[in-house]
Batch of 2 targets.
Target 1
Amino acid sequence: MAEDTSRWGFETRAIHAGQAPDPRTGAVIVPIYATSTFAQDGVGGVRDGGYEYSRTANPTRTALEEALAALEGGKHALAFASGMAASDIALRSLTRPGDHVILGNDAYGGTFRLLDKVLTQWGVEYSTVDLANPTATRAAVRPNTKVIWSETPTNPLLGIVDIAALAAVAAEAGARLVIDNTFATPYLQSPLGLGADVVLHSTTKYLGGHSDVVGGALVTSDAGLNEQFAFLRNAAGAVPGPFDAWLVLRGAKTLALRMERHSDNAERVVEALVSHPKVTKVYYPGLAEHPGHEVAAKQMRRFGGMVSFSVEGGEEAALAVAARTKLFILAESLGGIESLIEHPGKMTHASTTGSPLQVSDDILRLSVGIEDGADLVGDLLSALD
């Protein structure tokens, strides 16, 4: 019988859930099972854990999935080859041709591209709405609405959605609520406990935490949903290799420590940006004037390491700032130990150009790392001056 980890604190779960010492060797770190297939005890004699072929199951991946479920407070988790692979499996499991999806009007460009350019070709409809407004969200529901898909905080404008309120709207509509918890991480926020049906992660980001792996995950407490996801994942093959699973598992062990430092540094960066004359707006839910601040304070432990801001002078000025930073590396992605800067309109959210999700060209997005906070502030101030 699996260990009941629910009584453990977050940090203990991150290190021990699904990660008991290897019973044969005593190894305290989960081994990398670099094998594609497994010996069977006779035809159909699959061993405990269902190990027959690594597309279907692999012990290293199982350890990661048990850990992720424990961290999110869910009963089931599945790991994927990328966050977009997880999104694809979730949407194709939860919808059929003719169904409707509600997407937030501030969302990751890759999610928008998947819906707008891929799933619409399969006959799935979608519409966008301000998910922070329950009345507007309720009005967007159609008879064929099957999924409400939300980020919180959102990417890239750091909007906040009241998960419990959105869960109530989804329940009324008979739809499933999927929360992309990539920005917040399970350390800062627990969507399943607030009524979400499914939690999605790009484990490439904070869970992996070291910019050395690509992966994704779906977590749920609904056994039926998990079975659907697992079937389609096996059929489509979007699984991470054992080394990728091991890297995410390793990264997750220090998630709590890193998120505290990310949040500390982000707060220092925000303080500097708010008072800078060339910064016209700062997007960060930790600010008292942020429209979602009270909700974020209620459903999050802290406000995270992502910060966006608008620069006086429009696109040209924003691009110049991005080109002048030294410690903030100009790159896509986020959630690693190093600090990154990017221009969403031309980089991560270029696919939203011309759509209701298009990002203003004066906005820069920061993934604030765990370097010395004073050095990061100094780097930004130099780039702005």
Target 2
Amino acid sequence: MPTRVGIIHEDRLAGMWLTPEVISFSGSLLACWLLVRTGQLHGHLTHDLTDGAQKIHEGAVPRIGGIGLASGLILGGATLGHGAALWWIFALGALPAFAAGLWEDLTKTVPVRVRLTATIAAGVLFAEVTGYSLHHLDLWPIDSIIGLPVVAIGFTGLAIGGVANAMNIIDGCNGLAGGTGLILLAAMGCISAVEHDYALVSLILLTMAGVMGFLLINFPHGRIFLGDAGAYALGFLVAAFAIALPARHADVSPAIGLLVVIYPVSETLYSVVRRLSKARTAVSQPDRLHLHSLTFEALKGRIDNPVFRNSLSSVFIWALPLLSALMSFALAWSSVTVVLLAAAANVLLYRLAYAQVLRLTHHPRAPRGKAFNAALMPAPMPSLEIVAAEDSYSGRRTNAKRDRHPSRPNVRYVPLALSKASLWLGQLR
């Protein structure tokens, strides 16, 4: 017959192994594993194929990892004690974004504007229900505008919707979106712990556990993808925590959320600017000129295994969110000016990294010993040079040949054409 001490010891062990975080992790891991194992049953609806401008993976892969992530978070939330009410408010807010993303994952027919509207509506719902909003930034001209309740709620909706879509944009390599989300959540969890906000800490840990369960199936082999539903849900939660943190603690900089999410935001803004700079190209037009796509191409010839090259691209890019996370924790209690300067520095770092990877991808050194006329030819381009990008929403095909270097005009082909013409005329003599 067990003693009283033995019963207490067993109860504590059971409580340790059945914490909400463990349940969230296990539920997400098991659900993702089951989705992969049963792919032959639902693959006609859920598999992500390799056709498309942004596809760099190998073979057909389920893109409904968001269902696995949501399963873990729901199971873990059901056992949550401290902060349970707040958690279900977060979950309710994420529902429109998750639903729109899941519908796209299953049908591949939901327009971008519809999904963007759904994510913004999710942000508005979150701000309305919780009362957490971006109503001040300690900048007088801006505060006089966003201080109005209606403007604050709308601005919060736009911010959350933007981050949710930004997380979806960076979801292009194995582990990139999940790993980035994990890093950013860890930074906000540390800030919450310093503030002794254990309710928010428990919610962040619950989310991190669910993401880790997904990552064990997704990284490094890419057996399942987050999909739009998972990326939107993860982006929503990251943005919601980033807004709730300064709203719950006045001593935390109101601009700290921007610094936390500056990497996915930089990728999104630069993508918009790049596409707007190209004639007859819609902002929603997919391409293979994201930082992760270029990194994948830059590693070609150095790493033969495409799956390993895919995952290694994420490892390299994780340095950007890791830096912003460390800076966020260090500057969380600094002035808005300092935080905004740090965010600007991260944007500049992203741009420098992009330029460096673009140089490695688009301008490889020409081999020595070539004939003069061969030397006049442009350096061989990677497979992304000419991409017939199918826009699934408008059905219009575009030729991305002009995208050899989107950051400046492609003027080097003018003297090249003149040189080739002179050689051709010399042969006619």
